[in-house]
Structures are given as C-alpha cells and as structure tokens.
Write a structure and sequence with these properties.
Layout: H1 2-21, H2 30-49, H3 53-78
Helix pairs in contact: 1-2, 2-3
Length: 79
C-alpha cells in the first residue's frame, strides 16, 4: 500500500509540474497548488513513516509553500 501511495503522491506533483510547464495552467492556479499540496502531503507522511528525514524536509516544505499559496489566493478572493 505504501508504494501505491508514494506513486499517487508523486504523480500529483509531477502532473502539476507538467501542466505548468506545458502552459495549460499557471503555477499559482488553484489546480497547481492543490495537486502540489496533496502530493507533497502524501509523500511527507510516507517519508516520515520510512524515517527518510531529508525527503521529509523537502516534501513538508513543498506542502507548506503550496498551502501558503492557497491561503494567499483565498485572502485575495475574500478582499
């Protein structure tokens, strides 16, 4: 099950990257940020479970940046 979760998380992050790079979405779009947040959160949990501390740091930071982007979008929309 862990491998399947890792693949799903990696696919989400890579899908966001591919969509941005091909010009289909903007890096700051909700879709990009949600895919990055979901994928990096899954990978963070898996890294923690496997005691892979460098990978955990990378993915947790990726999740935090994505969450910050989503919160910023929400504040702008509410203003």
């Amino acid at each position: 099950m862990g491998q399947l979760l890792q693949l799903a998380g990696a696919f989400a992050v890579l899908a966001a990257f591919a969509l941005v790079q091909t010009g289909r979405i903007e890096a700051s779009s909700r879709t990009s940020l949600v895919l990055n947040l979901a994928g990096s959160m899954v990978l963070s949990v898996e890294a923690y479970r496997g005691a892979q501390w460098g990978f955990l740091l990378l993915e947790a930071a990726w999740a935090a940046v994505s969450a910050h982007g989503l919160l910023r979008r929400r504040r702008v929309a509410l203003a």
